[in-house]
Automatic annotation (TrEMBL):
Protein name (Swiss-Prot/TrEMBL): Putative RNase H-like nuclease
Pfam families, per the entry: DUF429 (PF04250)
InterPro entries, per the entry: DUF429 (IPR007362)
Lineage: Bacteria, Pseudomonadati, Pseudomonadota, Alphaproteobacteria, Hyphomicrobiales
Organism: Rhizobium loti (Mesorhizobium loti)
Amino acid sequence: MTPAEIVLVGVDGCKGGWIAVRRASGSAPSVAVFAGFAALLAALPDDAVVAVDMPIGLPEFSSKGGRGPEALVRPLLGARQSSVFSIPSRAALYADTNDFTTIEAWYAAHIRASEVAKTTSDPPRGVSIQAFGIFAKIREIDALLIARPDLRGRVFESHPELAFCRLNGDQAMQLPKKIKGSINPAGMAERKALLCRHGYDMRFLDQPPPRGAAADDFLDAAAMMLIAGRIASGEARPFPDPPARDRFGIPVAIWA
């Protein structure tokens, strides 16, 4: 099967779970939200290539700047580099795996994770609230890749701002997608125009995102789908190259 015939999937985490933009050979792209990552994979052919905006491969000990991939890609992104979170140690990610029923319990768990992160990093570093907010989703993918080594050759980590940069001739986006937590229409328009230059129809990108996902999640998943295509065709580059491996043998690299 050639890369053009492989089902390509771009995925981003969202409030409702995971938003996926999918395209099969000769078909228009489609978008849907899945409650779990395993359910998303179950809806795909076994040879689909998936690029997801979520850290894959966890360190036992975190150095300055997080894992190796974060430190490598930030300098490429200019003003957009703050969008690349530092990922702490595996122990910090698994410090508290409870479902939180109150905001107080959530903040207490963040503090516990930060304390573990500080003891497993040099220089000692806690966990940002933004990074802590995606811990459950990181663990969801991590558990699947530990249990199913076959997935490691077709589920790849990427990052939207690195994706947009690479798709834009290695020039980072000029405008942010959000300003103070709210959608920035000019930044969204800049990204939609770039996605259209790579084959998307503006009518597809202009549709309301599915329930459970935000407009920026939708665009990020659309960019991830293009990176899945670059991976399938051999155009994408991993940062670092070659990828590192965590203690379970899971590749550690951001692809774009």
